[in-house]
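note to self: the first set is below, dont mix up w the second
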Amino acid sequence: MSRLVANDDRVVSLAEAEVLVGEIERLRAEIGRLEARVGHLDELAHLDPLVHLPNRRCFITRLQRLIGRVEQDGHAAAMLFVDVDGLKAINDRFGHKIGDQALVEIAQLLVASVRGTDCVARMGGDEFGILLEHADESQAWQMALRVVETVVGSQFCVDGICLPLSVAVGVGTIGSGDKPETVIDRADKQMYRVKTPKGQPIGAVPT
């Protein structure tokens, strides 16, 4: 019978060696499956299950990275804070299932409104955030208006009834030394400035 000598001077047969090699390959395959599973779970932890966009947790991580790039390179960047108008009325009249469909529709419209390099995320409830890299305040407001016009110009129909969709958008510029919460709060406050004044178009640049 052929035998091999292991590192610890134990003698093993070729048959035993083949079994060990097979076990090693099995363990490697199992590790690969576990790593893939961990990767999938990590992705789910950063993804909103309804609209299939990054969630608030992922958004904050990306915002932190963007702040770092602004500090390093000095280029302009901004955040859009998007608040959906009238979602409660849709939920009350048609139910939360239709309200969820409206959120999915708006999420798709937001993605279609911005550049492929921009990050669109659901912050929670009826709020979304958009990160704009290489965009100053003026360019960010132009993008905000584009978002508003895209949403308002869309059609969302339920059982033959077309429901109007609209959003209010605020801009928060990103500066060196900012914290993610500071930027989000800045954009949120601008959104309320846009939303509150009577007679001012939703998404208009505040004066």
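second set (the one i keep forgetting abt)
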Amino acid sequence: MTDNTIIHGDCVSGMSLWGGQADLVLTDPPYNISVDNNFHTMRGRHGIDFGDWDKGFDLTGWIPSAVSRLKPGGSIIIFNAWRNMGEIATALENCGCLVKEMIQWQKTNPMPRNRDRLYVTACEFAIWATNGKGWTFNRQRETYENTIFKYPIVSAKQRVHPTQKPVELLQDLIAIHSNPGDLVLDPFAGSGSTLVAARNLGRRYLGFEVDETFYRAACSRLGDCVSDAS
């Protein structure tokens, strides 16, 4: 199992076979928020029914495996729904991690909702924790670095995965929490956006993706392919 690739297979079994360690784990696992809705009638909108892959997912069972592959002082950043963050934070602490901060992605073009009855969902969140002390933090702004990052949702024409994150957002996080030549691990690589961002910034990368359609899309974006992690 080599660097700079994506593996088609389950991340827990795959990480157990991988003998390396990551400087940064940056990932966007399923949120378990999908429900049936009629948003499919709106062009380019998936609404909140992303598919069966986002239903019944074990939110924290993979975390011990990921932390075991994280270098001392390495960072782990996990995107998820705000309602799941307490459970994820507890799982990270149970693995010996130090929970540092909540990161906020503010969407400049949020998906519309019933404006007379609901707030528009204009933010997504990620939790940042470290595997002990000595973490990397490369300030990018002239003053203080803050936890708010503003980017639009990836357009329907460009989007391969229904919950695809902007590469620019991921590049910001990778630049702050890793150094050139470091290894970035994404256990839930989807269409490969984290891996593309890592490559763009001169980092090594390794990803796992169990869904074949998304795996093939990531291979196309990255130009490499490993057939199976099993």
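remember for set 2: Residues 34-47 have pLDDT under 50 and may be disordered.
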